Amino acid sequence: MDNFEFYSPTRFVFGRGAEEKTGALVRKYGGTKALLHYGGGSVKANGVYDKVVASLEAAGVAYVPLGGVQPNPRSGLVREGIALCRREKIDFVLAVGGGSVIDSAKAIAFGTLYDGDFADFYFGKDVKRPTPVPAALPIGTVLTIAAAGSEGSGNSIITLEPDMLKRGATGDALRPAFSILNPEFTFTLPAYQTACGATDMFAHVVERYFTPTRDVAVSDELCEGLMRTIVAESRKVMSAPRDYAARANLMWAGSLAHNNVCGAGRAQDWASHGIEHELSALYGCAHGAGLAVVMPAWMDYVKDVDIPRFARFAAKVFGVPEGEPAAMAAEGIRHYRAWLRDLGMPLTFAELGAKKEDIPALVAKLGLNGNTVGTFKPLAEADVTRILESC
Amino acid sequence: MDNFEFYSPTRFVFGRGAEEKTGALVRKYGGTKALLHYGGGSVKANGVYDKVVASLEAAGVAYVPLGGVQPNPRSGLVREGIALCRREKIDFVLAVGGGSVIDSAKAIAFGTLYDGDFADFYFGKDVKRPTPVPAALPIGTVLTIAAAGSEGSGNSIITLEPDMLKRGATGDALRPAFSILNPEFTFTLPAYQTACGATDMFAHVVERYFTPTRDVAVSDELCEGLMRTIVAESRKVMSAPRDYAARANLMWAGSLAHNNVCGAGRAQDWASHGIEHELSALYGCAHGAGLAVVMPAWMDYVKDVDIPRFARFAAKVFGVPEGEPAAMAAEGIRHYRAWLRDLGMPLTFAELGAKKEDIPALVAKLGLNGNTVGTFKPLAEADVTRILESC
Questions:
Q1: Which chain B residue has its CA at the smallest distance from A4's CA?
Q2: Per-residue DSSP letters for B311-380?
């Protein structure tokens, strides 16, 4: 086990009616005037927005709305939010939505307090130790989709315009003070979004599970347990979207998949995420959909580095019977693809709407500059090219 | 799944040499003059105390030592610590030791800021919703035994003199700001203490695993994964006390067993802990040893409430083959006792040094006053009596 720090200070408030505590929680964490940040309007259509506003008003918290966050949130709206927060003397940033809204909120919360350009702290995946952001306004979230895990993470991913480079920032200051998770809010999600979310949270565990670090029995168990849960509960919600228990288990699994309890003491990979980010930045596809294409292809490419680990993945996560390890490894990846297919995910470049001729540009945008990405098998540009070609 | 809040803000700093960060961490959390609280002197003998002092001095943190915490820490030393903190204008409480030292430190950290008697906030297990302590000095820990989980919990258990009633307090203010976990510090523990620690952490998961709450797939998986880890890694450290990987996995499992990630969304039981606390208060036995006697007896007594859950416990934790559920349930408990026996734990009143004639007094001290304890099967005084008689 590697040395590590584990720090997950977010207060998770989970369950039916949890949003009624929003206003009191903003107050608890020092907020008197909140930026109310949201996306394309679905939170207005389904009533979540009004519930949050009612709670803010009941607690005497003033608010300034800023909607319009797109999937793969962009720097332009972040800059607009920063200007608005400064002008309105906002002291709390409240995100109502999914990972894109939360990531945008984090960038605004940090950028408001930072004298320079917020993008200074957004780096490519080849940067092993990005400088953490120094400070941010307190952040709260009301989650509406179980997926990104941003509600419990210290990360934010923004697409930097005009070059459409998807880049990440990190830092304890980006961890939400609280996150409200009401599984009922996910009942009415389109099936495709639910599926993309399950794909994404599973991938967050995979990035931690396939590691060169040895002797990590505790977190191996946590990873495998979460992956089994995500597969089982996602199958339930696809056939019964209003199954509260399944929605609840999937939602909580999504937070645990990314608050790093699964990654404590382990070198983590993140090559698939790095590669995918350029796909969704270029094509505007859902992050989960991009991962469904990239991650199994990554597995095929890297599995020979540690066949026993892939055999264990097959056995523990998908119940593949014991047998010849290389065959088990292949069978595990086949099961993974079959689950993604059942969810309705794309599995190839063609299904995603990506084009082979864009591969050189995608690889270049990763910005490796002669470095590698990933730890399970460090990948140079040529490796990334071969993975993308296999898609 | 029940509604819940999950809040575990402690910064865990884990690994070889982690104690070198002690002074800087005290500073980070506002400390300038720390109470350095410890136990019977083993931390002086094994060098941990000197390492911590060196780190405090390097960071320019003043400190006032207060040793002498006994297992099952007592109110007398807590009162002494509170007076010392007030007199010396201490602004940080640093515990160097195991659960007893940490629990004593928490009581001091709270009592120093509280105008009344600190014991006002220490309640019996029959109190379903004890009033959380309002505020406390910031607390840090340097852990020297993997067991109690107090390094990541918001609880403190103190034996109130002169009646020797073991009572608990709770509250977010009692959660340590940071906890330093260096598995090497546990290399030289006596085997019996290592075993008591493993017994205790396993019991923390059991108290959460056996629940009347349904549809808790995520935390069921986490519970089972941690229990498997604790059984496997404890067997390794008993035969190889300096096995870093096994010590590390056991230590981290102990923290996760009690920071409540396993209990999110579940009604928890805690009857066995409540019953055991009166045993260790009366006889001065190790908490883990008392649990090894009480908890399997509790299982025998309550298992018919939910045989399928006990059968699942048997299968998932101890690998009992599928079969007739009641037989599987009994076999699971047998495996549990066999593991405890292998650890060298007592399993009966006689082995513990407890006496049958004390049972009425033990039951009375639980202070049920006509209420019940536990949720899996709520136990009245007559039930507790029968469980203790079966020991």
A1: B14
A2: HHHHHHHH-PPS--HHHHHHHHHHHHHHHHHHHT---SHHHHT--GGGHHHHHHHTT-TT--B-SSS-B-
The pTM of the full predicted model, rounded to 2 decimals, is: 0.97
Q: In chain A, pLDDT over 90 holds for what percent of residues?
A: 92
* Preferred mutation among B1, B172, B202 to probe A, highest tally of A CBs within 10 A: B1
Burial classification of residue B241, based on how many CB atoms lie within 10 Å of its CB (0-12 exposed, 13-18 middle, 19 or more buried): middle
Reported ipTM: 0.96
A chain contacts of residue B225, beta-carbon cutoff 8 Å: 218, 221-222, 224-225
- What are the residues facing B178 on neighbouring strands? B11, B140
Residue of B nearest to A220 (CA): B225
A128 pLDDT more than 70: no
| DSSP letters for A134-194 | -----EEEEE-SSSS-GGG-SEEEEEETTTTEEEEEE-GGGS-SEEEE-GGGGTTS-HHHH
> Which B positions 307-326 lie with beta carbon below 8 A of chain A?
none
Mean pLDDT within A277-288: 90
Q: Does A382 touch chain B (CB under 8 A)?
A: no
User: 């918001």: which residue's tokens?
Assistant: B154
Closest of A68, A97, A100 to residue A84, by C-alpha: A68
Length in residues, chain B: 391
pLDDT in tens, B58-103: 999 999 999 999 988 999 999 999 999 999 999 999 999 999 999 9
Q: For A306, how many CA atoms within 13 A lie in the half-sphere containing its CB?
A: 14
Question: Any chain A CB within 8 A of the CB of B240?
Answer: no
User: Parallel, antiparallel, or unpaired for β A155-160 and A165-170?
Assistant: antiparallel
The answer to whether A190 contacts chain B (CB < 8 Å) is no
Q: Is B132 an 8 Å CB contact of chain A? A: no
Q: Does A357 touch chain B (CB under 8 A)?
A: no
Alpha-helix runs per DSSP H in chain A: 22-28, 42-45, 48-58, 75-88, 99-113, 191-209, 217-239, 244-256, 271-283, 287-302, 307-318, 325-343, 349-352, 359-365, 381-390
CB contact under 8 A, B225 and A229: no
List the domains of chain A with CATH numbers: 11-184 (3.40.50.1970), 189-390 (1.20.1090.10)
Task: State which H helix or E strand residue B25 sits in.
Answer: helix B22-28
Q: How many angstroms away from the CA of A289 is the closest CA of chain B?
A: 24
Query: A305-337: per-residue pLDDT in tens?
Result: 999 999 999 999 999 999 999 999 999 999 999
| CB distance A228 to A320 below 8 Å | no
CA–CA dist A363, B388 (Å, integer):
68
DSSP sequence for B71-128: SS-BHHHHHHHHHHHHHHT--EEEEEESHHHHHHHHHHHHHHH-SS-GGGG-B-TT-S
Residue of B nearest to A2 (CA): B15
Mutation pick from B6, B214, B219 vs chain A, by most beta carbons of A within 10 Å, is B6
**B305 CA: distance to closest CA in chain A (Å):** 22
Position B364 pLDDT exceeds 80: yes
Q: CA torsion B5→B9→B15→B17, rounded to 10°? A: -160
Instruction: Give the residue carrying structure tokens 């953490």.
Output: A132
Q: Number of residue pairs across A and B with CB atoms under 8 Å?
A: 126
Whether A215 sits inside 8 A of B4 (CB atoms) is no
**In the prediction, which pLDDT does B164 show?**
84
Per-residue pLDDT band at B349 (split at 50, 70, 90): very high
In the block, tokens 């009966």 appear at B348
